[in-house]
Each structure stands twice: as structure tokens, then as C-alpha cells.
Amino acid sequence: KNNEIVSMSIGYLMEKDTAVIWRGPMVMGTIQQMLNDVKWDLYSPLDVLIIDLPPGTGDAQLTMVQNIKLDGAVIVSTPQDLALIDARKALTMFDKTNTNIFGIIENMSYFVAPGSGERTHIFGNGGGRLAAAELDLHFLGDIPIDPSVCAAGDSGQPVVMGDMEISASRSFAELADKVAERARNLGDRDPPPIEVS
User: Fold this and answer.
1) In the Cβ-directed half-sphere of 126, how many Cα atoms lie within 13 Å?
2) Alpha-carbon Rg of the chain, whole angstroms?
């Protein structure tokens, strides 16, 4: 509503260049602490909480679906076959835990050459769209490789807060609208209890 973004990260708590080498219980405990102990609404009511998880189906993902009722999951993958293997595993896990899947986003989909505007598909072409079709999911869109995204990340200023003429800015804004629409349109499903043995 008021363009405020509040964030929390393990990176804020660690000394610079320190590796996080944690086994399952530490990962699960930290996620629970992030969910329950961070004052997410300290400055203003929280409209949306977005949780960026690593690829795969490990402790982090299982802890998340066991501890909170997710409105849904968005699968982000690059277009190449190897990356889509992990994406399919994540989809299977979220499906088995009765989590709504809003759709698939293809990241680093293509590079637009400055000057000519020619698209180069560095990591393959259309893998995310094809996976979405095969799995009967929504293809939410793609994000190009754009140096401005890297520069924005390094400066701490999201690319969408800058020049909306940049193709990556438009892509992020359009994807945010599509995810919000999917969140409004998908019905709630109660997650089942999960037993890990």
C-alpha cells in the first residue's frame, strides 16, 4: 500500500564471508524463529510476506509447509533442462503438501543485445513454458538477463523502483501483478499434516 518493503535475512545476522554450515535442526529452528520472532508488522501492517527458498525439497521447504499455511508457491527456474529437474521436484513436494502452485516463472530467459535488440537464449529457449504446459500449470512469464538488475541489487535499490522502461523492470512488475491475481483467484486448501520418518 505504501511502498514499504521490510526484509530479513540470515545474511544480516552473520559476519561477512562466514559460511552457514547447518544441519536440519538448525535450519528448521532458524526458519521458525524468522517466522515467529521477527516483528514483521512493526512499522505498518504486513500486506504480503514473500519467502525466497533455495532450490530443492529439503529441510527449509518442509519446515515452511509444516509451520505456516502458505497461500501458494511460485516456482522459479532457468530454462535449461537441468534446472527444470529441481523445479519439477519442488512442484511435486508442494503438490503432495496440498500447497497451491501459482505457476512457473522463467528466470534468465534471454539476453537482449544493446543496440540491435536481438534476443539470445543463453540457457535454452522456452523450458519454463514447456514445463508449465506439461504439468498443467500457469506460465507466469519470463525475466530477461539484464545488467541493470545486477546493478540494482548491488546498490540495494530494486530495479522496479527505478526506470520502468527497462525490460526487466516491466517483467518484474507484470509478474508481481500476475502472482497477486493468482493469489486472489485460487481457493484455500488446508495443508495436511506431514510426517517425516
Assistant:
1) 3
2) 18
Read off the pLDDT of residues 166-189 as tens digits, 9 standing for 90 and up: 888 889 889 989 998 888 886 554
Rounded percentage of the chain residues whose pLDDT exceeds 70: 91
**Bridge partners of residue 139, in order along the sequence:** 104
Residue entry with cell 496440498:
98
Residue 33: φ, ψ to 5° = -65, -40
- Cα–Cα distances (Å) from 61 to 65, 81, 117, 118, 185, in that order, read 6, 22, 39, 38, 24
Strands, DSSP E only, in the chain?
A: 73-77, 101-106, 111-112, 119-120, 139-142
Q: Which pTM was predicted?
A: 0.80
- Do residues 110 and 120 touch, judged by C-beta distance below 8 A? yes
48, 193, 104, 3: CA torsion to nearest 10: 10
Q: Which residue has the cell 530495479?
A: 159
Q: Cβ of 150: how many Cβ atoms within 10 Å?
A: 12
pLDDT in tens, 95-151: 888 888 899 999 999 998 888 889 999 998 989 998 899 888 899 999 999 888 888
Edge-first strand order for the sheet with 139-142 is: 73-77, 101-106, 139-142
